[in-house]
Amino acid sequence: MGRTIVEKIFDDHRIDNPFEDVHVIRLDVVACHEITTPIAINDLVARGKDRVFDPDRIKAVIDHVTPAKDSKTAAQGKILRDWARRQGIRDFFDIGRNGVCHALFPEKGFIRPGYTAIMGDSHTCTYGAFGAFAAGVGTTDLEVGILKGVCAFRYPETLRINLNGRLPTGVFAKDVILAVIARLGVGGATNKVIEFGGPVTAAMTMEERMTLCNMAIEAGGTCGICAPDATTVDYLWEFIQAEYPDRDKALESFSAYQPDADADYADVIDHDVSGLEPMVTFGHKPDQVKPVAAMTDQKIDQVYIGSCTNGRIEDLRVAAAVLKGRTIAPRVRGIVSPATPKVYRQAMAEGLLSIFMDAGFCVTNPTCGACLGMSNGVLAEGEVCAATTNRNFNGRMGIGGMVHLVSPATAAASAIAGHIANADRYPAEGAQA
Amino acid sequence: MKNFSGNVLFLDRSDINTDEIIPAKYLTEITKAAMGPHLLEDLCLKGFVPGKSTRDKQVVITRANFGCGSSREHAPWALETNGIHVVIAASFARIFRQNMFNCGMLALELPEAQIGTLFDTFAAFETRLEMDLADSAFTLAAEGRRERCIFEISPFDRALVEAGGWVEYADQHY
Ligand code: SF4
Questions:
Q1: Sequence ranges of the domains in chain B
Q2: Contact yes or no for B30 and A18 at CB 8 A
Q3: Which of A253, A272, A291 is the last residue of a domain?
């Protein structure tokens, strides 16, 4: 019987199988941020085990609340910062160099095909875009990861989703994943890995694949995963060129993480995207999704463009193309958070930040703040936000606030219109209306 | 191993989520102890008084899907810092359940009907639970009523509890 991608990764990394269906695997990356790591650090100190299994395989960032907004968040940052220094963790990113974890770490080349990674953060599943197994875990799992470099999992079943057809113009990876979550339901992939395949996945950029995999958890999935290919090699080439004589050799080596043709899937779903429209969520669960066209009477108070889902350069380009030469509705507050310093610089060099500012947007530093209602764009009770983030849970961006999840194009169009709106209303400057 | 016997707190509701067990605003705290005073602070349940109903209780018995919502391990910690090391329910959210055993605590599942019987028999009384982990059983006692219940626990979960949690288990084995 053939194996899926994740089964191959598990078989490569298993160091123990102490009981039936308990697989202890070796970790290539243990990633940390300042919300869930400090208690793990304090516990290790209290146990007299203030050590790390390998400082080079630990990556850490202060990203959720940065700059600190009060004494408590300052203390969380300080614990992570002091620990990173004490343990000699070189890949630690503090203010000025920090960015949203799941955008920053892939951009630094830390995630490779066939890798295993954990983090005390549920959207760690984003890294599956590189053909890696990456899962969000609780703080104790993180603590053991830091100390021992291992984590225990069940052998995950794989749900295969073939994205077929051709993505229509103006429809994006975000719309695809919202439609997929609507189809699966919020618990539809619980305990499973979602393997994305088919011609649409193959044609996607790494940024788009990250958007897909990022939201696997919103269907309950442990991880999303895409088979590594030439696109993966090109993205990683600057980091791996010393290891391979040429790109073909890298591709050949990564082909170890292709699923077998006779792999055993829990289910195979063929999902045609040819007729897909821009999508938006309407409730407090990410599987409550409908076409943007059916929601255009929904007024909004704020638009947020950013996060580990859609805060990358391609996302900013798409939004800026809609906003160029236009201004946002007077009643709308527009906030854009480029996800990393690299994205920020690139957006600046390409003139995108000027477009956002001319349109009336506030450009913040790279941070998660608004996405989880902690800083930089918290909603007041009764307010409505169109956001490119991944969670519309009750109170997510502020107690009593409502979040509608959308693509960057829809977010930009909604900012101009003052209500949920389709970007096809605002053709790019010079284009035929 | 932790203490698994004691007085029982009955929470007669399903789908109690981790936000109700410990509200999100305490995620900026940096000690487990800081969770203590806020256990079940936002729980919507008739007759339940936060801070008072949990006093001198060491065991929780509740209905289905306990610990759903956010994956925060702050929820088991809020229980732990109050001396509650056992939750018995008809079912649990996956990550909450894993977090409990990772902390060396017990999240025990019983069939829904049996949970219903326990509520009917004991919930109105001061009830005490005696754990007999070696025999995978516990005894409930109140006002002359007694009942012994058998539960299932996987070998790995038992090993975690016996070790005191996943940190201790991993330390011994890896
Ligand atoms: S951007 Fe939002 S979802 Fe992503 S890591 Fe930050 S808080 Fe979590």
A1: 6-173
A2: no
A3: A272
